[in-house]
Amino acid sequence: MEERRSLGRLAREPLYNTRAVVRMTGVPADTFRAWERRHGVPRPFRSTGNQRLYSDLDVGAIRWLRDRTDEGMTISNAVRRLRLEAPAVLDDVAIDESPAIPIDVADHGAALRQQLLDALTTFDGDRAERTVDEAIARYSVEAFCEQIVEPVMTEIGDRWSRGEISVAVEHFSTQLLTRRLAAIYRIVSQVEGRGTILAACPAGEEHDLGLMVMAIMLSRRGWQVIYLGANVPADDLISAVGRIDPDLICLSATNPGTVAEAVAVATSLQERRGDPLPIALGGPVITERMGILRDAGITPIVGSGTLAVERVLAALEEGEEYAQPPVD
Fold first, then answer.
1. Is the pLDDT of residue 123 over 50?
2. Residue 279 near residue 272 (C-beta atoms within 8 A)
3. pLDDT the model gives residue 94
4. What is the dihedral of CA 198, 200, 203, 208, to 10 degrees?
5. Residue among 53, 59, 146 at smallest CA distance from 103
6. The domain containing residue 6 runs over which residues?
7. CATH number reported for the structural domain that contains residue 85 in this entry
8. Helices marked H in 193-233 — which ranges?
9. Tens digit of pLDDT for each residue in 258-270?
10. On the chain, which terminus has fewer CB atoms closer than 10 Å, C or N?
11. Which residues contact 282 (CB under 8 A, 6 or more apart)?
12. Is 109 part of any domain?
């Protein structure tokens, strides 16, 4: 974790020629030039004489990849992990400064989504894993979540509701993608950060994939997210709040019953505490219950992905009473 933060602090100013980088890292020039051609890292500056000049960030990335490959990791997997652990190395702008999804993912994303759907609906786990690997290697974490995971799971849910696929397919798909998102969350999670957010699903809510996406994106914004996951009993959730004292509770509910559980938890917490505690709730069924949620002291979060994260942070940082979609 500290290694990732150290990379993020390194300067981008082009300073070192190839010979200096070889001396500083012990990596042959042919090796890191091959990494540059095949994987886009390092990213040297080209002088007017077409000479490569490397920054401290480039040198740090080369050392990091050297250490991972020395440990036995393939260079492809090392670059994928670097993309997750230190996005500033591979992104032109750090994610905190530019959370928008790259506009060029749509065309290739459609093919990846279809490929992933085909694999999941035929229980082809190996093909699904390879498709996920390709998406992670190609796109930012945010783009992967918003352009691949969320649309695919929405389509899976729609097909299940129409009776076109079985519960087994839905469970298989959810488990595979949740497992991969959990691995990403473990990599990007913050030991400490701008503040603490407790993320949980109320009792009876088994679907936490959307909450996991939210936790990943909040972690990438520098927040420490304590992730409790699905189906957390009310007493346990209230006890955890008392011990952690978070800046915000982020809940997720996908049906009226678990929305009611969230309201009950919020009401109990507000009654026990002397000061109001910000509580946000997201999910596909909350639009019809805005008034009930507001009366319980809950900020309804409509939407998903980056948009939902922006609304969560707006409610937290700006003290908004009620986060809702903009009026056209």
1. yes
2. no
3. 33
4. 180
5. 146
6. 2-90
7. 1.10.1660.10
8. 209-220
9. 999 999 998 888 8
10. C
11. 210, 211, 214, 250, 251, 252, 253, 300, 301, 302, 303, 304, 308, 312
12. yes
